[in-house]
Each structure stands twice: as structure tokens, then as C-alpha cells.
Amino acid sequence: MDDDLTGETTELLQSLIRNACVNDGTPESGGETRNAELLESFLTGAGLEVERFTPADHPDRASLVARIEGSDPGAPALCLMGHTDVVPVNPAGWREDPFGGEVIDGEVWGRGAVDMLNLTASMAVAFRHLARTGFRPKGSLIYFAVADEEAGGTCGAKWMADAHWDAIACDYVLTEVGGWSDTPAGRPRQVGVTVAEKGLAWRRIRVGGTPGHGSMPYGSDNALVKAAEIVRRLAEYRPTPQIDELWRAQVDAMDLDADAKAGLLDPARLWETFEQLPRPLAKRCHALTHTTFSPNVVHGGQKTNTIPDEVVVEVDIRTIPGTGHDEVEAHLREALGPLYDEVEVTVLFDDVASISPTESLLWDVLRDATQVAYPGAELVPGMVTGATDARYFRDKGAIALGAGLFSESMSFESFSDRFHGNNERVDIASLGLSTDLWQRVARQLLG
């Protein structure tokens, strides 16, 4: 690792954190233009093409694109994509200032340190260093610092893919989430790389009833009572699991005994195996093998003494690959039974799961570049249960991988605990490893 570049990444990450571009999903939140301006200033002067893109109706939601043009228009292009917004935070749960960006015991503390300003910063530093050292690739290298990822990308990656695809068009994308590693007993180091993500199928369920006086509830058509039964059925619903090659690869890399691994691959034993695992691992294993249903929002009722005639339940549905709109509706019909015909279901979000192959030049180059830090390490393909901006690139035909490289101290468990969690932080060694990784991949892939 280059200590000077690691220092640059550390300082840039601190500044990105301190800009506090908190995206809570409301139009007035985010302020990602602050980070776009910071990154533009950082990259300017290195002989780079740098351009900002701002949606007309969201002037504080700017994204930034920088390019090193390739000499061969037919050569593959690579995009390094990092988002510039972060999720909200409750300072009361933190040991340190969540927007202080302080270095404490070799770690940078702050909201976004793991998700994903660390990668956004390391990509920028690697990109600028390549430009300054005269890197002239055959294929174009693109740096994309994108807004609004934490609210679905409507004003960021989705808008750019729809309205300004030429600016970010590429064959390969490197973004979140990946780079943690573990060493199972008797196995080489296993480095996680995301190749797939679950789909979003959010639904709003309107439950109707008949209004009446709360003092006479007997035999009433109470929308809230029916909604409670709907919530119960959704919470208890067990759809058929999906055991595929991607899941088999993840199970193979887990540090579990043979019987637990066998249970995770046997649909008939999955649930009993979940109950034997630590709760964080069980939650992850369940989500990676099932389309999930989580009723998270309820609106309804007007007054304590009035029987409600309408209650709305919003359900976070995350689909496994191969599950589309029709399959989601079939799931809801099965889960709700006769109640399905008594409610109105509307679509809030409908993005299918996306996946990229591991048989690609990018995968091979990433594997080779990882060997510098971890000789003999194996890449393990995985799926994330949330959504990232990678799906917009996969929709355009690009191969998108969630990568990075963390130090040995960052296991999947510690990574997960810090992701959107209290006391989010990343060690400086990991910043150096990722900065070095992006350079090596770009040089090898683009020539």
C-alpha cells in the first residue's frame, strides 16, 4: 500500500462525512451537491474531464462524473461508482460525533464510513492518482459519484441511466457491497463479492371496513381488526425457499459444521437449522433463500371512539431472483387466503432482482488483484438483501460487482454491525487496501 494515498483517502473520507449529506427520503434532504463540489475540487487539476449533473427539480442533489478516455473505442469501459449520501442517525446512540469524521485508534468514525463513503473516497483517490501518473487506458475509466442511493436512486443513478446514459455508459461497474473476509477453519481466506441483489416489490394494502361507534364493537366490520389479521398472516407466511448455485457457494464458504451446512441446503430442514444458528446469521440465511414479507407501516383510524372504515398497511417485499410481479401477487394471495379478495393492493415499487455472472473478465481481474493483499484468497459470490444502484447498470447490460477490500479485522459480522448502525467506522488499513485495489483492477482490466 502507498501510505501517501492512504492518507489522502483518509482525509477525503473525513471531509465527505463532515458534509453530512443525510438522505431521509424527503425531497429537501440529502444536499449531495456539497459532496459533489468537494469531489470536483479534489479531482480538478489532474487533467480530467469532470462534469456535474443535477436534476432540475432537485438542485441540491448533484451527481458527478469524471473520465479518463480510452484510446480504443471498442475496448471495454469500467465505472467506479460510489454514492455520496448517507442514512439518518440518532446521535444519542453514538460514542462519538457521527459527523465529526475523527480518527480514533486508527479508525475513521462517522456516518457513511462503511456505507459507502469509504469506497467513494478511495475510488476518487485511485482515479486521481491514475490520471496524475499518466494512465492512458485502452478502455475508458469512469468515476461516478452519485446522489440519492439511499432513497432508491430516483434522483441519482436511475435518473442518470434514463437521461444521461452516455455519460456513464460502461461494460463493467465496481460499487458496493463487498470486500470483507473471513478464514474458515482449514480454508483459504474468503473475500465476499456481491454479484446479485434481491428485488424490491413494495406493496400498499388497503383494508376497508364499515364505520361505527366504538362503544358497540360486537359484530362490527372493523378495518383495523382485519388489518391485524393480515399483518399476522404476512408475518407467519413461509414461501418456498430457493436453493441455487449462488446460495451453495455462500454456504460452502461459511465457517459451520457439516450438519449445519447440510441443513442450509435442504429445504425440509432450513427452518430448524435457522433456529440453531446465531440470530444475525439466521436472519441473513433466511433472507437469502426466501422472498420476504415485512409489514412495516400502518395508517388508519380517526378517533378513539370510532370504528375505522379504512386501514392501510405497507409491506416491504424483497424478492429472490426469478420472482416477478405475477409471482408476488400469487404469494400475497396464498398468504392472505380469502382476505386477499377483500383488500386493494397497489404497487409502491417493483424492481426485479438482478444478478451478474462470475464468468467475466472483471471477476478474473478482481480475483488476481486481491492476491496482492491476500495471497491464495478466494472470491465468494454473494447476494445482498437490500438494493444498490448496481441494478440500474445491470438493466443496461453491464456487469456490476460489489467489491472493495478490507483489513483482516473486518469480518462480515463486524461489517454488518456498522452498516447503518451506531458507531459506524472503518479502519485506515482498509482504506489503503481499497485504494490500491481500484488502481490494480483499472490497470489490468483496461490495459
Strand and helix map with partners:
Elements: H1 3-18, H2 33-43, E1 49-53, E2 63-68, E3 78-83, E4 103-104, E5 107-109, H3 117-132, E6 141-146, H4 157-163, H5 165-168, E7 172-175, E8 178-182, E9 190-197, E10 199-200, E11 203-208, E12 212-213, H6 223-236, H7 245-253, H8 258-264, H9 270-276, H10 279-289, E13 292-300, E14 306-307, E15 310-319, H11 325-336, E16 343-347, E17 354-355, H12 361-373, E18 378-384, H13 390-395, E19 399-402, H14 412-418, E20 425-427, H15 428-446
Parallel strand pairs: 3-6, 3-7, 7-19, 9-18
Antiparallel strand pairs: 1-2, 2-6, 4-5, 5-20, 8-9, 9-17, 10-15, 11-15, 11-16, 12-14, 13-15
Helix pairs in contact: 1-3, 1-15, 3-15, 9-10, 12-15
Task: Tell me about this structure.
- This protein is of the alpha+beta class.
- Helices cover 36% and strands 22% of the residues.
- The longest helix has 19 residues, at 428-446.
- It is globular.
- The protein starts with a helix and ends with a helix.
The spatial strand order of the largest sheet comes to: 1-2-6-3-7-19
Ends distance: 21 Å
Low-confidence stretches: none
Instruction: Decide which structural class fits the backbone.
Output: alpha+beta
Which strand-content bin applies to the residues? Answer: 15-25%
Q: What Rg, in angstroms, do the CA atoms define?
A: 23 Å
Number of strands: 20
In this structure, how is the largest beta sheet organized?
Answer: 6 strands, mixed
Shape: globular
Helix fraction bin: 25-40%
Provide the residue-averaged pLDDT. Answer: 95
Question: Helix count, per DSSP?
Answer: 15
